[in-house]
Amino acid sequence: MNEKILVPVLGESITEATVAKWLKNVGDAVEADEAVVELETDKVNLEVPSPISGTVGDIKFKDGDVVKVGTVLGSIQSNGKNTQAEIKKIEPDIKVDDSVNLEKEKKDEELLVPATDEEPLVLTEEIEDEKDTKKPIESSTLSPSVRKIVTEKNIDVKSIKGTGKDGRISKGDLLNLMSATPKPNERKIKFGEEERIKMSRLRQTIAKRLKQAQQNAAILTTFNEVDMTSINEMRKENQEDFKKRYGTKLGFMSFFVKASIVALKSFPAVNAEISGDEIVYKNYYNISFAVGTEKGLVVPVLKNADELSFAEIEKNIKTISEKARDGKLNIEDLQGGTFTISNGGVYGSMLSTPILNLPQSGVLGMHNIVERPTVVDGEIKIRPIMYLALSYDHRIIDGKDSVSFLKTVKENLEDPGKLFLEI
């Protein structure tokens, strides 16, 4: 008996997908509900499971083909035998240049997305002192002046041929490094002068939505800065107990979510959207948060965030971020957001102007925390400062409200006790 492998319902307004890759070959044994093929939609990737246990009978579409909802992708044979002996798996029609480009795309993504096990949105914990990675240098082979330069510049002396007495390295040898010819560009050698690859479906959607945001909204950005001293101290004092009690770390995001909700309640236009000639005010608070993945930026949603505790916010963000990183998000994870928080600080961004996530009217941009000289009670002190940015749709949010919104966020972050007391 044969069972068809069908393209499932993909979600609201999504009628087609691209075959990303087949996870099984013709003749491979599969168990019921085991993933057989991965599809890519405009929003998420999803795996199509086998309807029964058996073997893969045939495959009707190759990687890269576009398929409609309900299309038969192939079949599974329950008797374990392939009755269509002449049918072979359709191999992707990839030319040599395309295969090179695919490898290039993977490497590009690895360069763009930091390799980290931390949640994509959660700021790093307290900055640790950099470990001294410099290798010990034999003082008997280097003069004090040369040793100083080698230590400061972390130069690998093994790669230098000394011209001094007994082969010792001199200052001149170090200066000669400046005239050394750079190594050839390996990418140019491997891929040629230029590379041309097709944008993924997700990347095309990102490009289209960002352009729509610029064309359809009057986007302005206002800025402020927040002293993170109190939050840092609160996290440091309570981190161990918090983790023991709730099984997760007390990060920064729960504070920003809570502070944003306080401000959204005070300035409801920031939580609203335009629909035709009407303004739709949302009396619920679904916080979208931007997550960088290997395939591009996705913006999952923390539903009813105003009803969640600090611990619940941290747990849910961690769970959703892991799903995003593993490509396991579903359509429901991405729908219904009313306000977005974007954290460029995890990548080292000092300041940026985040773009709106339509149809939402506001997005809060977080950035890195840097120790800066700040005037406190008439004295200059060094404090951990983060720059904040609020981009907003000026069609429904006035400048006064946008500035006041961001000021409210700042005040609650600098006095985080208010967030616990809800005052």
Topology:
Elements: E1 2-6, E2 16-22, E3 29-30, E4 35-40, E5 45-49, E6 54-59, E7 66-68, E8 72-77, H1 96-112, H2 144-153, H3 171-176, H4 186-191, H5 201-216, E9 219-227, H6 229-246, H7 253-266, E10 272-275, E11 278-281, E12 287-289, E13 291-293, E14 296-298, E15 301-302, H8 310-325, E16 339-343, E17 362-366, E18 369-376, E19 379-393, H9 399-414, H10 417-421
Parallel strand pairs: 12-16, 16-17
Antiparallel strand pairs: 1-8, 2-4, 2-7, 3-6, 4-5, 6-8, 9-19, 10-11, 12-15, 13-14, 17-19, 18-19
Helix pairs in contact: 7-8, 7-9
Notes on the structure:
The protein has 423 residues and is an alpha+beta fold. It is built from 10 helices and 19 strands. It has helices at 96-112, 144-153, 171-176, 186-191, 201-216, 229-246, 253-266, 310-325, 399-414, 417-421; strands at residues 2-6, 16-22, 29-30, 35-40, 45-49, 54-59, 66-68, 72-77, 219-227, 272-275, 278-281, 287-289, 291-293, 296-298, 301-302, 339-343, 362-366, 369-376, 379-393. Strands 9, 12, 15, 16, 17, 18 and 19 form a 7-stranded mixed β-sheet that branches. Strands 1-8-6-3 form a 4-stranded antiparallel β-sheet, with no helix packed on it. β18 (369-376) and β19 form a beta hairpin. The radius of gyration is 27 Å and the shape is globular.
